[in-house]
Amino acid sequence: MVLGGGEGDGTGCPLSGRDAEMDAALTALYGRSGGGSRKKAGERSAGLGGSAPQVARWLGDIRTYFPASVVQVMQRDAIERLGLSSLLLEPEMLEAVEPDVHLVGTLLSLNKAMPETTRETARAVVAKVVRQLEKRLATRTRATLTGALDRSARISRPRHRDIDWDRTIRANLKNYLPEYRTVVPERLVGYGRAAQSVKKEVILCIDQSGSMAASVVYASVFGAVLASMRAIATRLVVFDTAVVDLTDQLDDPVDVLFGTQLGGGTDINRALAYCQSKITRPADTVVVLISDLYEGGIRDGMLKRVAAMKAAGVEFVTLLALSDEGAPAYDREHAAALAALGAPAFACTPDLFPDVMAAALEKRPLPVP
Predict the structure, then answer these.
(1) CA-to-CA distance for 271 and 342, rounded, in angstroms?
(2) What is residue 366's three-state secondary structure?
(3) What one-character DSSP code corresponds to residue 36?
(4) pLDDT surpasses 70 at 221
(5) Secondary structure letter of residue 280 according to DSSP
């Protein structure tokens, strides 16, 4: 459907009723201010301005006329195009919006400026989005990683159904009999069953610069899911030019999110130095760096730390973004340098993240999209 009115639509058919109301809602956001034909007497005007009541009415209108996915896009455009962030500091405004990941990112960036009268409403909005994400992602993440932990526990006397045939064949290639064109397996390699004790350690190291807002939200949710698994010891670290360890808040991802501070500079080297100091079992540790790699610290130091961790046996994963948007802007030179160290940097959607983590836990090639 194409909506539009005035002298420029070329149809000669004016809009009326619900179509006119939908068009007015769109024009308020996307119409050209100061352009087009002059407003006639009695004609409905458009525009949001800076009035909270007017914006609240507009938010109600778009929720009436458009599906939730479109409403979320329009809200995001309104915040970016019309500078409405400050209006989100009012409780009545927050109650009118359709919550999504990007709105949570905006609220977190306004966290320090948020008055107490708004804070509880903001927490309710963030909690609603977190519950939606956990419902969408938690079950598959736990199932995928539990399987990966089981497969990573190797045993030498497996039952037939637990034999890892790929590894068994590779381990017995020296016993290949050309005349029979077969391998005689002297040693079987099989999948074990992960015990309830800690088998792996995962460190999520998250860049909290402003461009990484959606990634911070998703990573916090995944951090809480991983922390709920007994076989994985999970640590969550956020950084800009300072480093903050939020591991003790992982039982509530909403607390984690409000413990972040979006914006500011970036010192990846300092963050990795902290993470490196917390590694006690390198061969059983996965470090996940989530950053666009725009380093404000010591570049060579960052790369040396990654090389040292990998040499010690750490599985190192670099995600340029953990979001639905696809490839972000990132420092290509640093990404290439990490790839040369055997730590390819790539963007990852939330739906792919469990598979990436499963591959890292099993020490097999990452499913780079």
Answers:
(1) 20
(2) coil
(3) S
(4) yes
(5) S
CB neighbour burial string for 305-329, b if at least 16 within 10 angstroms, e if fewer: bbbebbeeebbbbbbbbbbeeeeee
pLDDT digits (tens, 9 = 90+) for 289-345: 999 998 877 788 999 999 999 999 999 999 999 998 866 789 999 999 999 999 989
Residue 163 is classified by DSSP as B
Cα gap 69→71, rounded to integer Å: 5
In sequence order, which ranges of the chain are alpha helices (DSSP H)?
A: 17-30, 52-65, 68-82, 91-96, 101-109, 116-152, 165-171, 213-227, 253-258, 268-277, 299-311, 332-340, 353-362
CA atoms lying within 13 Å on the CB side of residue 131: 7
For residue 14, give both structure tokens: 């004016």
How many other β-carbons are positioned within 10 Å of the β-carbon of residue 180? 8
Q: How far apart, in Å, do the first and last CA atoms of the chain sit? A: 34
User: Quick check: helix, strand or coil at residue 154?
Assistant: strand
284: helix, strand or coil = helix
Strands 315-322 and 285-290 turn out to be parallel
Q: What is the DSSP letter of 202?
A: E
The H-or-E segment that residue 230 falls in is none
How big is the CA angle at 254 (ends 248 and 259), to the nearest 5 degrees?
A: 60
Query: What are the two backbone dihedrals, phi and then psi, of residue 350, each rounded to the nearest 5 degrees?
Result: -60, -35
Cα–Cα distance, 145 to 361 (Å, whole number): 8
Give me the phi and psi of 237, to 5 degrees please.
-125, 130
Q: SS3 for 243? A: strand
Q: How far apart are CA 364 and CA 167, in angstroms?
A: 12
Token digits of residue 67: 């599906």
Cα separation, 272 vs 338, in Å, equals: 13
Kindly report, residue by residue over 40-67, the tens digit of the pLDDT: 433 434 456 555 556 767 777 787 888 8
Encoded tokens for 148: 């990966």
Residue with tokens 């068994």: 168
Tens digit of pLDDT for each residue in 180-204? 888 878 777 766 555 455 689 999 9
* Euclidean distance between CA atoms 307 and 209, whole angstroms: 24
